[in-house]
Amino acid sequence: MTAALLADVRRLVVAAPSSTDHDRDVAADFATFFADDHGPVSRDDGPDHATASALVFDRSLTRTLLVFHAKGQFWVQPGGHLEPDDTSVADAALRELREETGVDVSASAEPLVYDLDHHALSSAFGRCASHLDIGIGVVISDDADLIVSDESEDVRWWAIDALPSQVPQGFAGRVRRLRDRLVS
Description:
With 184 residues, the protein is an alpha+beta fold. The chain has four helices and seven strands. Strands 1, 2, 3, 4, 5, 6 and 7 form a seven-stranded mixed beta sheet that branches.
C-alpha cells in the first residue's frame, strides 16, 4: 500500500466525527490500529485491517442502496478491501461501489461525510478476523442502472425505516447516523 493511502486513513481517523460517546469510542479503537506509520491498511497486514465502503442514499435521504453479501449472507453497503491503485479511502469506496453495483460516481468533494465501524467477521471470511471500515456517504439518483456482482446475490434500494432483518448488528444505527450527518 502507498504511504499516501495510509496517511489518508490516519487523517480520517484523527478527524473522525466525535459528537457522541459511540463516535469517540470507535475513533479511539481505530487510533490504536493506526497510531504509527505501519497501520493495517492492506488485507496482507494481518487479520484486522482497513476497508472502505459507500453508504449510498437516494436524494430524499429516505432510502439506502444495499447488496446481499454472498459470503456473509446479509444485506450491507457496498465496500471492500483497499487496493494498491487506490489513491484515497474515498477512491476505494467509490471503486467498490462501481464494482458491486455498477453505479459510477465521481470523487466526493471534501469534506467527506463519513463514519468509522470496526466489526468482527465470521469464519466465512477466511483469514479476515475484523474490518476497520471507513464508510463515506454518497447521494445519488435512485434511477441508476444496477448490476449484481459476483460477490453479491442481489442489489436493491431499502427504506431506511424498513431495513431488511438480515443486516449486521448495529447496521441500522450506522445508516441513520450517517444520514443525519448528510442532513446537517
